[in-house]
């Protein structure tokens, strides 16, 4: 802990940030929540999220975002499929796992951070780059011979991974049925 920070008597540091997002929550009584719990048979996936005060189930987060996170959000491309973030993510993986030290990194994120509008540059340096043979194929090679998969949700990725594990176990132990709870 920083020795220069001011502390309250309970040894809690003074706040050093502001909250940027506030959402009004409905007033829900204990009786209403109990009624909803019974009606949904205590299934947390069926419980109406509009009646929650704190959502600890979703992966959407439970805190406010920083001003840098809000600013970055507006640079995001929320299109499905091959959005800009997809290309940047693959290239960042290549930077980290294939290109060696930081001096060799391409840093495609800088094209997005600077809001590059040069279509030819984006095509040549990001969108239409072919990569094959490394850990992360790109372009046509990624479609024809994928050697990595990007899955947008943790639960979906876990499901895919567990199905692969289940098949491997079935091959190693023929005739045995495996059930993997996840």
* H/E series: HHHHHHH
Specify the oligomeric state: single chain
- Class inferred from helices and paired strands: mainly alpha
Tally the helices: 7
Q: For the record, give the distance between the C-alpha atoms at the N and C termini, rounded to a whole number.
A: 38 Å
Strand proportion: under 5%
The percent of residues in helical segments reads 25-40%
How confident is the prediction overall: mean pLDDT? 80
The profile of the biggest β sheet is: none
Query: What's the total count of β strands?
Result: 0
Low-confidence stretches: none
Written account of the structure:
The chain is mainly α and 182 residues long. It has helices at residues 30-39, 67-75, 84-97, 109-113, 119-127, 140-144, 154-172. The chain is extended. It starts with 29 loop residues before the first helix and ends in a 10-residue tail after the last helix. The mean pLDDT is 80.
Supply the key terms.
single chain, 182 residues, mainly alpha, 7 helices, extended
Strands, helices and their partners?
Blueprint: H1 30-39, H2 67-75, H3 84-97, H4 109-113, H5 119-127, H6 140-144, H7 154-172
Describe the structure in brief.
The chain contains 7 helices and no strands.
């Amino acid at each position: 802990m920083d020795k220069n920070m001011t502390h309250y008597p309970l040894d809690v540091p003074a706040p050093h940030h502001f909250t940027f997002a506030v959402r009004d929550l409905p007033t829900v009584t204990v009786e209403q929540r109990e009624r909803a719990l019974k009606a949904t048979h205590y299934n947390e996936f069926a419980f109406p999220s509009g009646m929650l005060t704190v959502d600890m189930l979703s992966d959407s987060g439970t805190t406010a975002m920083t001003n840098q996170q809000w600013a970055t959000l507006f640079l995001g491309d929320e299109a499905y499929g091959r959005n800009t973030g997809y290309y940047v993510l693959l290239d960042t993986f290549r930077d980290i796992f294939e290109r060696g030290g930081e001096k060799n990194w391409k840093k495609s994120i800088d094209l997005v951070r600077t809001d590059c509008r040069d279509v030819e540059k984006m095509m040549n340096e990001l969108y239409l780059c072919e990569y094959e043979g490394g850990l992360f194929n790109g372009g046509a090679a990624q479609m024809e011979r994928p050697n990595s998969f990007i899955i947008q949700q943790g639960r979906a990725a876990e499901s895919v991974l567990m199905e692969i594990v289940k098949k491997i176990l079935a091959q190693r132990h023929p005739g045995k049925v495996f059930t993997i709870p996840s």
